[in-house]
Amino acid sequence: MNPESFPCQLISWNESYELGRRLAYEIKHSGFRPDLIVAIGRGGYVPARVVSDFLLFSLLASIKIEHWDTAACMRPHATVRFPLAVDVSGKKVLIIDDVTDTGETLRTAVDYIRELGAAEIRTGVLQHKTVSPFVPDYYGEVVAEWKWIIYPWAAHEDLVGLAERVLSVEAQSAREIGERLKERYGLVLEESTLSEVVEELVATGRAQVQEEMYRRAE
Amino acid sequence: MNPESFPCQLISWNESYELGRRLAYEIKHSGFRPDLIVAIGRGGYVPARVVSDFLLFSLLASIKIEHWDTAACMRPHATVRFPLAVDVSGKKVLIIDDVTDTGETLRTAVDYIRELGAAEIRTGVLQHKTVSPFVPDYYGEVVAEWKWIIYPWAAHEDLVGLAERVLSVEAQSAREIGERLKERYGLVLEESTLSEVVEELVATGRAQVQEEMYRRAE
How far apart are CA A55 and CA A33, in angstroms? Predict the structure, then answer.
């Protein structure tokens, strides 16, 4: 994968919800009834909440696993940053995340929850990328062609990260930044989203602005 | 409030996101920079994830507080069901929930996090109902007229709960159940949503079905 150009896809809230509905359907119809749902932070918060709703099941907790730093920048290992605050010994646990990419996050979560003594562990994601060596028990959809998927709850951070990559030391307009995002990542942003992204680059000191032209901060 | 009839409002994903964006804007522009965001489970999971995105801040944890049982059924006290797994002593903590209704959930969360030794605690919600004696530090919007707000991540459970209330011992069609939901709660549901809701009533043994007519299970 060329780190300077790769396909990205923005997923809408309604599309994410539909994937959550399908994921919950798969879980329901498998007959598996968890004693606890664990959301993997931060990507699994929204999917786990939606699954919890469709399963009419309120026992939802979270852990935080660190792995991806910013959009498409991988660190070698996943680690549990915030532990689980609930006793799972002898329990059936359903772990939910957004996507399997390398699957490293889910594998780390499963090992961790197993060490805590859970009796049975199953995993579910909205989208399972077939490149992932780890295959979750449940998923809303299979993604065969690798792409970076941008979920709506991560869109601001992901887009700001990608926009920072296309910034050059030469002044460019917001529209030009938008064109580079399209060329390099296949992203077509609404004007209001693009404005919000470049304003954030300026607010966080990553871009300098002068007369509505932006350049990489020095 | 008549427990058999009260105004409800279904909020869409995009509306919820817009409220989250406004909430994050208020926090950002107040100058408050948290050391940790705590989502109150389960209502605060989605709002907290969205706020975390707009603040470009990744330290997100959760607690679970139990208070509301099902749609608009209140239990007298809120209690911490799943504790916080992160050390907050001396830290600035931002607690996020969906809505202030009585404010009892947020008050319980603040007392709990304070006892854990946090240096500073601020609270934020998507929507602040003015009937709530507890006023959060930040909110996306004020709601002056009391209504039961149904967020998309809780819609299935809330709608199933409300539909169960309108079920009678006499057989009725899905359409008739939909009409009662409109009369009593002001809810206008899409046909697919209504089907999903009545199917869930049957699947969970709350309704009996015969020739596409539904009645309260005996």
Answer: 9
On whether any CB of chain A is under 8 Å from the CB of B49, the answer is: yes
Is A50 in CB contact (< 8 Å) with chain B? yes
For chain A, say whether B29 makes contact (Cβ under 8 Å): no
DSSP chain A: --TT---EEEPPHHHHHHHHHHHHHHHHHHT---SEEEEEETTTHHHHHHHHHHTT---EEEEEEEEE-STT-EEEEEEEEE---S--TT-EEEEEEEEESSSHHHHHHHHHHHHTT-SEEEEEEEEEETT-SS--SEEEEEE-S--EEE-GGGHHHHHHHHHHHH--SS-EEHHHHHHHHHHHH-----HHHHHHHHHHHHHTTSEEEETTEEEE--
Tell me the three state secondary structure of residue B148.
strand
- Does residue A206 sit at the B interface (CB-CB below 8 Å)? no
Quote the ipTM score.
0.95
Q: Whole-prediction pTM value?
A: 0.95
Read off the tokens for B45: 């999971």
Contact (CB<8Å) A45/B42: no
Q: What's the CATH architecture for A152-216?
A: Orthogonal Bundle (1.10)
Distance CA A173, CA B97 (A): 38
Q: Helix (H, G, I), strand (E, B), or coil: what is residue B195?
A: helix
Q: Do B156 and A53 touch (CB under 8 A)?
A: yes
Report yes or no: B41 at the A interface, CB cutoff 8 Å: yes
Q: Per residue in B141-191, pLDDT tens?
A: 999 999 999 999 999 999 999 999 999 999 999 999 999 999 999 999 999
State the CATH class of domain B8-150: alpha beta
Of A78-92, A113-127, B65-79, the least confident: B65-79
List, in sequence order, every residue forming a beta bridge with A128; answer none if it has no partner: A100, A142
For the segment B65-75, what is each residue's pLDDT rounded down to a tens digit? Answer: 997 554 555 54
Q: Residue B46 and residue A155: Cβ atoms within 8 Å?
A: no
Alpha-carbon distance B134 to nearest alpha carbon in chain A (angstroms): 25
Residues of B in contact with A42 (CB under 8 A): 49, 52, 58, 60
Domain residue extents for chain A: 8-150, 152-216
